[in-house]
Amino acid sequence: HATYVSVTGEGGVSARTPGMLAESKFEMVMHDDDTVSFRTVFGAYLSAAESGWVTAVEREIGEREKFALVFNHENGTFALGTSSGRFVTVEPTGYVLANRPTADLWEEFIISKVEG
After folding, report:
1. Whole-prediction pTM value?
2. How far apart (Å, rounded) are the C-alpha atoms in residues 18 and 28?
């Protein structure tokens, strides 16, 4: 994959960016129910709709803006589980969707802490 998930000011989400940009940085918000939310540089949260689309337009955190981090001990990656029981994936075209019933290679993400 070797691309970064990034967002647009209009709420589009894709994984086509080969390098780290401001639009590829998210603030991870931890919740008491062991889920996390991802706030974008534009102040919106990543959201997984029932239809499977992942967008970044919501300004408030609801169930669709919460994700379970599923750690893969074998390779140090994470899968992102949604409130509908699906997993976030990156299609070969760069589309980011939340429509997979299980976590496999295309549902693996690396989460890195960056400053600034």
Report:
1. 0.93
2. 21
